[in-house]
Amino acid sequence: MTAVKDFPLSAEKTKDGGGRTRLLYGFTGITLALVVLCLGMALFYAGQDITQGDVQRIFYTHISSFFGAFIAFSATVVGGIQYLRTRHPKWDSLALAGVEVGTVLAFINLATGAIWARPIWNTWWTWDPRLTSAAVMFLTYVAYLMLRNGIDSPERRRVFASIYGVLAIATVIFTLIIIRIRPDTIHPAVIGSSPSTGAEGGFEMSSSMVTTLLFTLLTWSFFLTPALIWWRIRLENTLERVNKMKQIYLER
Amino acid sequence: MDFVTPSNGEYLALAVVVSFGALLLFVGSVFARYRNAQRDMDVIEQMAEE
User: Fold this and answer.
1) Domain annotation covers residue A3
2) pLDDT-derived band of residue B45, with 50, 70 and 90 as boundaries?
3) Which helix (H) or strand (E) holds B42?
4) Is pLDDT of A122 > 70?
5) Residue A71 lies in a domain
6) Does residue B2 sit at the A interface (CB-CB below 8 Å)?
7) Contacts of B6 in chain A (CB under 8 A)
8) Which domain holds residue A240?
């Protein structure tokens, strides 16, 4: 008969796990406060763009969600490379967490872009090079999640996911640089310059706008994204533990 | 004729709802899956005890 002591303890029951849990709760609390502050700054502190109106405030979330996705997908690359080197499942958990979080943030980026485009470009969507590459990037990572779930062997699934995750970053880099290299895009470059002469919807930023954008960028990139990844890794660790417990129970 | 700043706050409201709605959905899904896994763990521990 299987004894309860044969099963690995859950994270909360271990000494180290308890400390990490408190750290995670603290980090999550700070993140939540910062995200609310970002929203408040975007709505009430940053000045209104006189040409675009209130819809310009979408840009703070739109840009920050993209950079958050970039950080998350970069974590997938780190996790993938490290898994292929060490074959330790914890790196695969990081890679998977990066893709899930990055995909949600990429969706927010696409959705906010479409909502901004409706009053400014008079359309929800156009097959502009930047928009198309962002959509391809999003779908590439959706495909990662779908294909990953279709492989039964855990080892093969992890190897496949690691290689896919490393290669898929090309779509992120391409999306990032396309407005710097394609002169025919209508997507404005808010940060830096663009070779495009047909960009529509660009705007000059006042100091309050720059402060809000930087604050939101840093919060979404270095607080919100890592906090979400951390929670997702915690979930994956618990799922792994449940699977191990099931295996131990069934083998006895 | 003077330029009038367009009134389009409804699009901003929609963007806020969609952005934070997506984040909440994701966080909710993580917590739901976590709770289910904890329940599974409890069931297996109970079965092992019997």
Assistant:
1) no
2) confident
3) helix B9-49
4) yes
5) yes
6) no
7) 52-53, 55, 119
8) 20-189+205-251
Instruction: Note the pLDDT tens digit of each residue in A37-76.
Output: 999 999 999 999 888 999 999 999 999 999 999 999 999 9
**Residue B9: what residue type?**
G
The A-side interface with B (CB below 8 A) comprises 1-4, 6-7, 10, 39, 43, 48-55, 57-58, 61-62, 65, 100-101, 104, 107-108, 111-112, 115-116, 118-119, 228, 231-232, 234-235, 238-239, 241-242, 245-246, 249
ipTM value: 0.92
Is A195 within a domain?
Answer: no
CA dihedral A183, A177, A169, A137 (to 10 degrees): -50
Residue A215 lies in a domain: yes
User: What CATH number should be reported for the domain holding residue A33?
Assistant: 1.20.120
Q: Which residues contact A236 (CB under 8 A, 6 or more apart)?
A: A93, A96, A97
Residues in a beta bridge with A49: A53
Look at the block and give the residue holding tokens 């994204």: A225
How far apart are the C-alpha atoms of A134 and A230, rounded to whole Å? 25
> Is the CB of B5 less than 8 angstroms away from the CB of A51?
yes
In this prediction, residue A198 has a pLDDT band, given cuts at 50, 70 and 90, of low
Residue scoring higher pLDDT (A8 or A174): A174
The closest alpha carbon to A171, from A217, A138, A196, belongs to A138
| Spatial separation of the C-alpha atoms in residues A165 and A83, rounded to whole Å | 11
Q: Is the pLDDT of residue B38 over 90?
A: yes
- Provide the domain count of chain A: 1
